[in-house]
Write a structure and sequence with these properties.
Elements (H helix, E strand, L loop, with lengths): L1 E3 L2 E4 L2 H12 L3 E9 L7 E8 L4 E4 L9 H5 L4 E4 L3 H11 L6 E3 H6 L8 H9 L19 H12 L1 H15 L2 H16 L19 H21 L3 H4 L2 H10 L4 H5 L11 H14 L20 H18 L3 H4 L2 H8 L10 H16 L2 E6 L2 E6 L1
Parallel strand pairs: 2-5, 3-6, 6-7
Antiparallel strand pairs: 1-2, 3-4, 4-5, 8-9
Helix pairs in contact: 3-8, 9-11, 9-13, 14-16
C-alpha cells in the first residue's frame, strides 16, 4: 500500500486487509466503483474507492481480488453510496456479496424534494463545491491511472460521508428516515434477486404485446440469447437485437432465407449453427404457452378505470410537490394500476405510502373523498 496524502493506492492483499480493518473501526464508510460494460455482458470492475473516515483507499481489482470484502459487507456497518444499483451488481459479481446496510444519497435526497439528483448536484447544494468533470468515460482499466483519473475517483467518495450526515440529519428532522430506510431495503432485496434467463423476454418492451405463438417464440429466443450472451460475455445486442427477437416472433420463419429476410436480423451475426438453432427455437416456441406476469398485463385493468389512473397520477404529482418528495419515489402509473386492481404488490398498498396516499385513493374510489381544484392546485377532500 502506498500513500498519496490521505489517499492510499491498494495493490496487494495486505493493503486491502488494512482497509478492511479501518472500516471495522467505524460505523459508516463510503464506497463507489468504476467499471466498464460497453462490450461485455458482465461488468468489468476497474477500481473501487472506499472512504473510511480518516482516508480514502483506491483499490485496484486488476491486480488483487476484492473477494475479502464479503465479510465486511455482511457486517452491520452502513455503506454510503450514490445511485448504487449498478454498483451493487458489480459488488455481487466480484465480492459474492453486497452490503447488507446501505444509505443511497440519491434516494435519500429524493425524500427531501430533489429529483434524482446527481452526485455533483448534491455537492453543489450541500457543500457549495463542484466536482471535477471529464474523466467518467475514460479508460479505467488502463494502467497506470492518470492523476486526473485519481482526482476524479477520490472526489466521488471524499465528501460523501459529510453529505450523508447532512441528509441523515434532515431526514430525521422531517420524520422521513424510516421512509428512506424502507427504500434502501427494497434496493438491496432487488440486487439479491437472481435474474432468470427464461424471464428475459419480459425485459423487451415490445414483447408484452405479443400473443399466441409469437409470445412463446419470443420467450424461447430471448432465453437462448441471454444464455448465449452470458457464455460469450458480450452484450445481448451483440447476439441478437431486440428488434430481431420481436420480428422473428411475429414472422415465424421456417427456412434460412425467411429468417435472414426478417427485419433486424444481421447476417454478420449468423453462422449455420446459430441459424439452425433459431429455427429450432421458432418451431418449439410455437407450441409453448407463456403467460404475461400479472404486474405486466395491462389488460387486467378495467377499461372504465383508465381515466382514474390519469387523474390519480396528477394528484400524486401534486402531492409530491406539496410534500417536497421526488414523484418517482411516491408511486408510478404501474403502482396506481396495481392498486386499482387491488393487488397488494402495489407500493401504494404498503408502509408509509399506504398511510399518506394509498388510503386517500381508496376513499376516492369508494366515493367518500373527491378531488377538486383549489387555487390552481389539485387537492383531495373528504365528503
Amino acid at each position: 500500500m502506498s500513500n498519496i496524502g490521505n489517499v492510499r493506492l491498494v495493490t496487494d492483499d495486505d493493503g486491502l486487509s488494512e482497509v478492511i480493518e479501518q472500516c471495522y473501526k467505524t460505523d459508516t464508510y463510503a464506497l463507489d466503483t468504476e467499471f466498464h460494460r460497453e462490450k461485455t455482458y458482465y461488468p468489468k470492475l476497474a477500481l473501487m474507492q472506499i472512504n473510511f473516515g480518516s482516508g480514502v483507499a483506491l483499490i485496484d481489482p486488476t491486480v488483487i481480488s476484492v473477494r475479502p470484502l464479503e465479510q465486511l459487507f455482511n457486517s452491520d456497518r452502513i455503506v454510503v453510496m450514490h445511485a448504487c444499483v449498478q454498483d451493487l451488481e458489480v459488488l455481487q459479481r466480484y465480492c459474492k456479496a453486497i452490503p447488507q446496510r446501505i444509505f443511497d444519497t440519491q434516494i435519500a435526497a429524493g425524500f427531501l424534494g430533489l429529483r434524482t439528483p446527481s452526485l455533483s448536484a448534491l455537492h453543489e447544494k450541500y457543500l457549495k463545491k463542484k466536482l471535477p468533470k471529464g474523466e467518467r468515460l475514460t479508460d479505467w482499466l488502463r494502467r497506470p491511472l492518470s492523476n486526473r483519473q485519481i482526482d476524479y475517483a477520490v472526489s466521488d467518495v471524499a465528501d460523501l460521508l459529510e453529505i450523508y450526515k447532512m441528509l441523515l440529519s434532515e431526514l430525521t428532522r422531517r420524520g422521513r428516515l424510516n421512509w428512506a430506510e424502507d427504500e434502501f431495503e427494497i434496493v438491496t432485496a432487488r440486487a439479491n434477486e437472481m435474474k432468470s434467463p427464461n424471464q428475459a423476454w419480459i425485459r423487451i418492451k415490445e414483447t408484452r404485446h405479443l400473443g399466441g405463438q409469437a409470445r412463446g417464440v419470443a420467450q424461447q429466443i430471448a432465453e437462448w440469447r441471454e444464455v448465449e450472451a452470458q457464455s460469450l460475455d458480450v452484450p445481448v445486442r451483440f447476439v441478437l437485437s431486440d428488434m430481431a427477437v420481436v420480428s422473428i416472433s411475429q414472422r415465424l420463419p421456417e427456412t434460412l432465407d425467411q429468417l435472414l429476410s426478417v427485419r433486424g436480423v444481421d447476417r454478420r451475426q449468423f453462422n449455420d449453427k446459430r441459424a439452425t438453432k433459431l429455427l429450432e427455437l421458432v418451431a418449439s416456441g410455437k407450441s409453448k404457452k407463456v403467460r404475461v406476469p400479472k404486474d405486466k398485463n395491462n389488460k387486467q385493468l378495467d377499461p372504465s378505470l383508465r381515466p382514474a389512473v390519469a387523474l390519480i397520477a396528477a394528484w400524486l404529482a401534486q402531492f409530491a410537490k406539496d410534500s417536497d418528495l421526488d414523484p418517482s419515489l411516491l408511486g408510478t402509473r404501474a403502482d396506481i394500476e396495481l392498486l386499482l386492481r387491488k393487488d397488494d404488490e402495489s407500493r401504494l398498498s404498503q408502509g408509509w405510502r399506504k398511510v399518506y396516499v394509498g388510503e386517500p385513493i381508496r376513499k376516492l374510489l369508494e366515493g367518500s373523498a373527491s378531488l377538486a381544484f383549489v387555487d390552481g392546485r389539485l387537492q383531495m377532500e373528504d365528503r
